[in-house]
Amino acid sequence: MARTLLTGAAGFTGRYVAAALAARGHEIHAVVHDTPDEAIGGASEVHQGNLTELDAISRIVEAVRPDHVVHLAAIAFVAHGDVEQMYRSNILGTRQLLEALARSAAKPASIVLASSANVYGTAREGMQDESQPLAPANDYGVTKVAAEHVASLYRASLPIIVVRPFNYTGRGQSAEFIVPKIVEHARRRASVIELGNLDVARDFSDVRVVAEAYARLVSAPEAIGGTFNICSGRAISLQEVLDLVSLLLGHKLDVRVSPKFVRENEVRSLWGSPEKLRGVVGGLPMIPFENTLRWMLEA
Questions:
Q1: What are the residue boundaries of the NAD(P)-binding domain, all occurrences included (predicted)?
Q2: Is residue 226 part of a domain?
Q3: Which residues contact 11 (CB under 8 A, 6 or more apart)?
Q4: Which of 161, 167, 246, 249 has its CA 20 to 30 A from that of 223?
Q5: How far does the chain reach from its first CA to its final CA, in angstroms?
Q6: pLDDT tens digit string along 261-287?
Q7: Are strands 68-71 and 3-7 parallel, antiparallel or unpaired?
Q8: Beta bridge partners of 32
Q9: Taking Cα atoms as reference points, which of 36, 47, 29, 28 lies closest to residue 12?
């Protein structure tokens, strides 16, 4: 049984990735910053430690001696209020984990490192593929570009796979994010919701599909050294999301466009190309976005 170290295991994405890996027979060693509020399904053991502290993460690495690593731990909310914490967690945390793995006598067979489609920025409208120049438009995107550059320092000695997920959602995601915010308002039958531009369209996937992609990549030797978009390949506008939620729940929200949610010079439509990923892991079981919304509304 493969021993897999999973950072960020207590987070929204981590819990789904733990389940996907466990379903494939992995022995999951979950790394968390703080004691989780509830058990992490599929985890064989939970290790508490701060990824920015090299000694702490080195002790965990030596105790587990993982066959595989999936690194998800990061501050993922673009508008997070503590910029210094975001830079430390997303960049230094990645560096210290990779350094601990590089120093280990037992190297893993693969390391999946979660970056973000935010590295592409918004300079170019339309389809984004892995060859596009990086042009982050916010601090979160900058930290992910920096983390990718940190990873490049270790590519010669470690089997690194970089993933760039586009937007994704599902049960358990914070209502700070746009789709859970809409779902939460609709479920409690609120009369009004404040949003930004409704014609903005982005690539949305189901978190369970993203988790399956990570679980497949970690066991794909041909993926090592590569960078892969994780995406659906199509864009959905906020207006479409609102219309689907209204149709599924029979409740229409009155939308008020708030200036605080409107970004200047925001491009209308962005989506990713999943072709490179498909070439390595095959076709993923794509879940129609309507089904994702129904699943969230029925939670």
A1: 5-295
A2: yes
A3: 72, 73, 76
A4: 167
A5: 33
A6: 777 767 899 999 999 999 999 999 999
A7: parallel
A8: 48
A9: 36
Burial of 105 (0-12, 13-18, 19+ CB in 10 A): exposed
HEC string of 117-165 equals: HHHHCCCCCEEECCCCCCCCCCHHHHHHHHHHHHHHHHCCCCCEEEEEE
Is 260's pLDDT higher than 90? no
Cβ within 8 Å of residue 268, ≥6 positions away: 125, 199, 200, 201
User: pTM of the full predicted structure?
Assistant: 0.95
When mean pLDDT is compared across 34-48, 110-124, 162-176, 283-297, the lowest value belongs to: 34-48
Q: Tokens at residue 217, please?
A: 């990549």
Those residues whose C-beta lies under 8 Å from the C-beta of residue 297, and which sit 6 or more positions away, are 183, 186, 187, 245, 248, 249
3-state secondary structure the chain: CCEEEEECCCCHHHHHHHHHHHHCCCEEEEEECCCCCCCCCCEEEEEECCCCCHHHHHHHHHHHCCCEEEECCCCCCCCCCCHHHHHHHHHHHHHHHHHHHHHCCCCCCEEEEECCHHHHCCCCCEEECCCCCCCCCCHHHHHHHHHHHHHHHHCCCCCEEEEEECEEECCCCCCCCHHHHHHHHHHCCCCEEEECCCCCEECEEEHHHHHHHHHHHCCCHHHCCCEEEECCCCCEEHHHHHHHHHHHHCCCCEEEECHHHCCCCCCCEEEECCHHHHHHHCCCCCCCHHHHHHHHHCC
Q: Is residue 86 domain-resident?
A: yes
- The closest of 61, 209, 66, 230 to 161, measured between CA atoms, is 230
Q: Is residue 280 part of a domain?
A: no
Flag whether 278 is in a domain. Answer: no
| Whether residue 42 sits in one domain with residue 53 | yes
> 143 and 238: one domain?
no
How many domains in the chain? Answer: 2
